[in-house]
């Protein structure tokens, strides 16, 4: 099923409202936005953005991603968990742009796989979910490296010359865990949600 299938305007607004509420709850209620798997702490908020994209459209996924990014910035200003929040997550290139691109790359990759193998719906759902997850992880870490490389290296007690390697380790641990979670959970939520959304 290609994305961007038309919905009634009231239904779309209602679904966007529900997903926005879920994003807000995940951001402000402890443990609902993360899976505490020591020593990892992967986020699952990106899954809501992926589900929005796969259930509704690429544009709606970008909207929900934007809401997540803005909420993350607000939380950094009002409820900073660490001193890093006040100079990392208030930067829109780190907190906002990667979240918007989740919807974009999830939608693009889903449509591409669906075009190449139209009968492989599960493959399209899983692949696009994993790509959407890695989009968030890689872009966040890339912009941290680009804008705050030296101070971030000092904050995590790593020599700046080894920061790239340290960030790759994060991609290989938290990033992989988040991608696996997205590849499993997002399709499981999307399929029944589509049936409710598009039932005649």
TrEMBL record:
The keyword Membrane belongs to this UniProt entry's keyword annotation: yes
Signal peptide: which range, if any?
none
Q: Where are the transmembrane segments?
A: 12-32, 44-68, 123-148, 168-191
Could you confirm whether the keyword Iron appears in this record? no
Q: Which Gene3D superfamilies match?
A: 1.10.1760.20
Q: Which Pfam families match?
A: ECF_trnsprt
Q: Which UniProt keywords apply?
A: Membrane, Transmembrane, Transmembrane helix
State the InterPro entries in the record: ECF_trnsprt_substrate-spec
- Protein name per the record: ECF transporter S component
Biological classification of the source: Bacteria, Bacillati, Bacillota, Bacilli, Lactobacillales
């Amino acid at each position: 099923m290609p994305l961007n299938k038309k919905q009634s305007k009231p239904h779309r607004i209602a679904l966007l409202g529900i997903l926005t509420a879920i994003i807000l709850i995940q951001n402000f209620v402890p443990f609902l936005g993360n899976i505490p798997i020591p020593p990892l702490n992967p986020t699952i908020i990106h899954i809501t953005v992926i589900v929005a994209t796969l259930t509704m459209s690429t544009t709606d996924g970008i909207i929900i991603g934007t809401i997540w990014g803005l909420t993350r910035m607000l939380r950094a200003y009002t409820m900073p968990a660490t001193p890093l929040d006040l100079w990392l997550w208030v930067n829109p290139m780190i907190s906002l742009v990667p979240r918007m691109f989740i919807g974009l790359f999830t939608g693009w990759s889903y449509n591409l796989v669906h075009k190449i193998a139209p009968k492989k719906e599960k493959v399209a759902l899983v692949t696009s979910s994993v790509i959407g997850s890695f989009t968030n992880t890689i872009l966040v870490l890339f912009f941290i490296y680009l804008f705050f490389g030296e101070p971030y290296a000092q904050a995590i007690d790593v020599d700046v010359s080894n920061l790239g390697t340290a960030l790759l380790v994060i991609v290989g641990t938290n990033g992989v865990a988040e991608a696996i979670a997205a590849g499993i959970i997002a399709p499981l939520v999307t399929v029944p949600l589509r049936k409710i959304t598009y039932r005649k």
